[in-house]
Amino acid sequence: MAKSSKLDQQLCFEVYKASSNFSKLYARTLEPFQLTFTQYLVLLALWEEDYLLTKDIGNRLGLGIGTLNPIVNRMIDSGWLHKIQSDKDKRAFIISLTEKAKREEKPIEMAIMDKIISCNFLDINAQTLMTNLKSLNAFLTQIE
Fold first, then answer.
1. Partners of 94 in beta bridges
2. CATH, domain 7-143, list 3.30.365.10, 3.30.110.30, 1.10.3720.10, 1.10.10.10
3. Structure pTM?
4. How far apart are CA 46 and CA 52, in angstroms?
5. Between vectors from CA 71 to CA 67 and to CA 75, what angle results, nearest 5°?
């Protein structure tokens, strides 16, 4: 029987590996749309509520402005997003979806759902896992 390493006994390592594997799974699924996983997360935030300030998108995704700005700029260059200066604060920008982004929402959703179903991920009780991860994240945020 193989000896379990200290690393294999760490919850943080399993969460890290799961996150990395999810990112890879989504990256392969999003490749035909020429999107990265993080770009997809930006689209998710805007599909839920269009016309958001950059800082609000960053808050929802847990990304700093320095990380988010290059992502948004690449998405603007590739035709996914528009960026306009806020009337209320000249330093702030409002990000919105292009017609391309609106048109591709359903095909992207279907591609991701097809991938998840093909992996039989739903059989491992995804709802329980999601609930447990939300509790873990809430706890970790509280102790920061």
1. 53, 84
2. 1.10.10.10
3. 0.82
4. 7
5. 165
- Residue 93 and residue 56 in contact, taking contact as beta carbons nearer than 8 Å: no
16, two tokens: 């890290």
Give the CA-trace dihedral at 136, 138, 142, 143, to 10 degrees: 10
Burial class of residue 94 in the structure, from the number of CB atoms within 10 Å of its CB (0-12 exposed, 13-18 middle, 19+ buried): middle
Cα separation of 102 and 59, whole Å?
22
HSE toward the beta carbon, residue 29, CA cutoff 13 A = 23
Residue boundaries of the structural domains of the chain:
7-143
pLDDT for 8 equals: 76
CB 112 within 8 A of CB 29: yes
State residue 127's pLDDT score: 72
What one-character DSSP code corresponds to residue 86?
Answer: -
Amino acid of residue 45: A
What are the residues whose beta carbons fall under 8 Å from the beta carbon of 25, sequence distance 6 or more? Answer: 115, 119
Q: What's the pLDDT at 56?
A: 97
57-89, pLDDT tens digit by residue?
Answer: 999 999 999 999 999 999 999 999 999 999 998
